[in-house]
């Protein structure tokens, strides 16, 4: 069901925890799904210098969070904003269709953290568009895949 990479990220996730003095924090998720992600960013200039996460959810949610924080470190904010859930899925070697929503949550958490950073600095948040994690009946709905 899960790739070896997903299992490795789940059993040995990197960047777990919070950043007490984070420059941006994004929390997304759905209690109906059971997956909730919180991404913390440290930003210097226009680059993400640190990224950490706290995730309550399944193996795919934790693996997606871990992989995302590893991938966005060192990225300029503009590039991190364009980071897609497909990037996460590819880096994990794939996710079962019913678990792709976890990668969407990871992307959305990054965007929420960037918008929090912008808001804290008196800037307008960027338009996030809308994505749907779950249909209220549990995980397995079909989110939009970038």
Explain what you see.
The protein is an alpha+beta fold and 146 residues long. The chain has a single domain, classed as Alpha-Beta Complex (Sufe protein. Chain: A), CATH 3.90.1010.10. Helices cover 38% and strands 18% of the residues. It has helices spanning 4-11, 59-72, 77-82, 85-91, 100-120; strands at 24-30, 35-44, 47-56. A 3-stranded antiparallel β-sheet has the order 1-2-3. The two termini are 22 Å apart. The model is unreliable at 132-146 (pLDDT under 50).
Structural class: alpha+beta
Total DSSP helices: 5
CATH architecture: Alpha-Beta Complex
Strand content: 15-25%
* Oligomer type: single chain
H/E element sequence: HEEEHHHH
**Main sheet: strand order:** 1-2-3
Envelope shape: globular
Q: Uncertain regions: pLDDT < 50 for 5+ in a row?
A: 132-146
Overall number of structural domains: 1
Radius of gyration: 14 Å
Describe the structure using short key phrases.
alpha+beta; Sufe protein. Chain: A; single chain; 146 residues
Protein topology:
Layout: H1 4-11, E1 24-30, E2 35-44, E3 47-56, H2 59-72, H3 77-82, H4 85-91, H5 100-120
Antiparallel strand pairs: 1-2, 2-3
Helix pairs in contact: 1-2, 2-5, 4-5
At a glance:
The protein has 146 residues and is of the alpha+beta class.
């Amino acid at each position: 069901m899960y790739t070896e990479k997903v299992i490795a990220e789940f059993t040995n996730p990197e960047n777990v925890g919070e950043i007490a003095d984070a420059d941006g924090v994004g929390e997304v998720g759905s209690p109906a799904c059971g997956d909730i992600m919180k991404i913390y960013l440290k930003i210097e200039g226009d680059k993400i210098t640190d990224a950490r996460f706290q995730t309550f959810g399944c193996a795919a949610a934790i693996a997606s969070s871990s992989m995302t924080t590893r991938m966005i470190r060192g990225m300029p904010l503009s590039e991190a904003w364009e980071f897609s859930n497909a990037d996460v899925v590819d880096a994990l070697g794939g996710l079962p269709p019913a678990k792709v929503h976890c990668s969407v949550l990871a992307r959305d958490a990054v965007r929420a953290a960037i918008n929090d950073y912008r808001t804290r600095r008196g800037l307008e948040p960027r338009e996030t568009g809308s994505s749907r994690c779950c249909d209220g009946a549990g995980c397995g709905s079909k989110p939009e895949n970038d």
